[in-house]
Amino acid sequence: MFFRNALFIPRFSRGLASHSGPLAAIPATLHLKTGQSFIGRSFGAPKSIYGETVFSTSITSYTESMTDPSYRGQILVFTTPLIGNYGVPLNQAPIDSQDVGVVLESQRIQCAAVIVADVAEKFSHHTAVESLAAWCRRHDIPGITGVDTRAITRLLRDQGTTLGRIAVGDDVLAPPPQAEEYWDPSKENLVDQISTKEPYQLNSNGSIKIAVLDFGAKANILRSLVRRDAAVTVLPWNYDFNSIRDQFDGLFLTNGPGDPGHCMEAALKLRKTLAEWDRPVFGICMGHQIIGMAAGLDAYRMTFGNRGHNQPVLALASAGSITAGRVYVTSQNHQYALQLQDPFPHGWEPFFINCNDSSVEGIKSTIDSGKKVWGVQFHPESAGGPLDTIEMFTDFISECRSHKESISGRVSTTVAPTRPRVAVGAGA
């Protein structure tokens, strides 16, 4: 009897799902600069926008993707058919040694728009407070549903990331934009738009002092540092770190949107840091590209980039928790990559390579260089599974702590007063 009645529990629980209300029957169209158009319905903010059309193969975490600053200026196409089924949580968290003030990756939606095959009108999750459509309306972000996202993805995969326009309402009746009307976000310094303008601190009582250059940091990067007892000082992307570097035990460079070429100022300052400073440095995504440019590598624009939670990378070298020869499944969001060249710059070696397209996924300083510097194109903080690369944060903090202790040991040995030796067994 119990098992027969239990069959009705899932159906009953689905009936308790929150309803976002029917979507307004407002037409919306995606126009691509290459000439294709896709007609659907609007959800979210009923407004028209321009942007760069990209796709993500992520199956879950649409809220984290949409709040990732690296998606700034982009029209985000989700390949997963149903999006919005678990709603949107309250995006507030404490600021302490365990968290950084937000649940998601930033305080607001960062992408310019979203495109989904089927937006969920009902959502169900114990942390959800609103629907995807309501969330987009509140942040003034337009969306399109009811289009063939498979066809859009195939186009973007074959012809590459493409500039686009979402036309909503009366704008649907207008002809598609002319080629010169499309806005290209890669022409702008998006990092400068999104980076903090003033330095600020997190977990000031932490035992290890880490400086973070903010190119558009995901909150989980900062969260991963403070949870490892780091006192974090977040700096603007072009801050003169060399003027204060000796106050810190390590330097971290974050992810960020757009073309790394706009951040050459930061790369040149980092080059001076790497030449003169002997403490650990770690970079992720844009930060990895900045490290590469500082080392003498070139960055190039990929055809359609890598965006999703399922990119396999092969470790070419061992370091900390990373074992050479092993494949790691990673989360990624980038349009640019470092150029693989032979020979590599002196003192540097490839760390990871992408198993799908052979793009550079990581670089590191060589043992002979005497430096402790790593950069990875993927996102270890995304914690994609039990065998992922999250422990790279632990490796970094451990190296910072070891270096700090070695300095303390040298200082104490130098300044400690000498005392006369006392023979064993001698009286006072």
From TrEMBL:
Which E.C. number(s) belong to this protein? 6.3.5.5
Mind telling me which SUPFAM superfamilies this protein's record contains?
Carbamoyl phosphate synthetase, small subunit N-terminal domain, Class I glutamine amidotransferase-like
Subunit comment for this entry?
Heterodimer composed of 2 chains; the small (or glutamine) chain promotes the hydrolysis of glutamine to ammonia, which is used by the large (or ammonia) chain to synthesize carbamoyl phosphate.
Protein name per UniProt: Carbamoyl phosphate synthase arginine-specific small chain
Q: Which GO terms describe its molecular function?
A: ATP binding; carbamoyl-phosphate synthase (glutamine-hydrolyzing) activity
Q: Which residues form the Carbamoyl-phosphate synthase small subunit N-terminal domain?
A: 26-167
Family under the similarity heading: Belongs to the CarA family.
UniProt xrefs under InterPro entries: Anth_synth/Amidotransfase (IPR050472), CarbamoylP_synth_ssu (IPR006274), CarbamoylP_synth_ssu_N (IPR002474), CarbP_synth_ssu_N_sf (IPR036480), Class_I_gatase-like (IPR029062), CPSase_GATase1 (IPR035686), GATASE (IPR017926)
Main EC class of this protein?
ligase
Q: What keywords were assigned to this record? A: Amino-acid biosynthesis, Arginine biosynthesis, ATP-binding, Glutamine amidotransferase, Ligase, Nucleotide-binding
Q: Which organism is it from?
A: Mycena indigotica
Q: Name one Pfam family in it.
A: GATase
Q: Does the keyword ATP-binding apply?
A: yes
Q: In which pathway does it act?
A: Amino-acid biosynthesis; L-arginine biosynthesis; carbamoyl phosphate from bicarbonate: step 1/1
Q: Mind telling me which HAMAP family this protein's record contains?
A: CPSase_S_chain (MF_01209)
GO CC annotation terms, alphabetical: cytoplasm
**Which GO terms fall under biological process for this protein?**
'de novo' pyrimidine nucleobase biosynthetic process; glutamine metabolic process; L-arginine biosynthetic process
* PANTHER family named in the record: CARBAMOYL-PHOSPHATE SYNTHASE SMALL CHAIN (PTHR43418:SF7), MULTIFUNCTIONAL TRYPTOPHAN BIOSYNTHESIS PROTEIN-RELATED (PTHR43418)
Catalytic activity from the UniProt record: hydrogencarbonate + L-glutamine + 2 ATP + H2O = carbamoyl phosphate + L-glutamate + 2 ADP + phosphate + 2 H(+); L-glutamine + H2O = L-glutamate + NH4(+)
